[in-house]
Amino acid sequence: MTQADRPIRVAVVDDQPLIRAGFSMVLAGQDDIEVVGEAENGADALDLLEKVEADVVIMDIRMPVMDGIQATERLMRLDDPPGVLVLTTFDNDEDAFAALRAGAGGFLLKNAPATEVVNAIRVLAAGESVVAPRITRLLLDRVSDRLAPANGQAERLDVLTARERDVLALVARGMSNAEIAAELYVAGATVKTHLGNLMAKLHLRDRAQAVAFAYESGLVRPSP
């Protein structure tokens, strides 16, 4: 059975029972979404996902026993990892950045409207990044002056062609494929090909990770 033939399977991970119950209640009202389980910390989430399959995991960051960042890192080691949607606030910028670096497909504020959460789940289940590139860039600009470049990341740029570096830099500036095509005077399909190639070479899951890598490698610098 393909995903199109069944509901999107979602696991909810948060250490607060009321928040878990609230998400589960909202999602239960969606015809195309099924809550397959709940967990109160990252360790319990890993145990849960050994027993049930999930397409998307709603993951809190700050939890006892194992936090959401550690759990996300562990989930990304699976052969077919679920999409991870982390919950955060802009009061914890470093946490949000760490979650993206760990492999999360995006983040939402904890007080996001229910419709936004539901839409994010659908987008993530379809294999896309939840966070718009411009929002990711704003987040990284806020934290980059407090983060040291990751060891070895700059050397990874050596596998890219000059044009692939250009595309990655423009993605990190928050540009869409169409905007990049206009900037480089190439077809949109060409941009898509370069983006796919560079993400494969760098083992990146989505645009959000690509933006994070561009900052970590020093390819782009924070805005003034």
UniProtKB/TrEMBL annotation:
Gene3D superfamilies noted in UniProt: 3.40.50.2300
InterPro entries the record matches: CheY-like_superfamily, NreC/VraR/RcsB-like_REC, Sig_transdc_resp-reg_C-effctor, Sig_transdc_resp-reg_receiver, Tscrpt_reg_LuxR_C, WalR-like
Residue ranges occupied by any HTH luxR-type domain in the UniProt entry: 153-218
Domain named Response regulatory: residues: 9-125
Key words of the record: DNA-binding, Phosphoprotein, Transcription, Transcription regulation
Modification type 4-aspartylphosphate: residues: 60
Name assigned to this protein: Response regulator
Organism encoding this protein: Streptomyces atrovirens
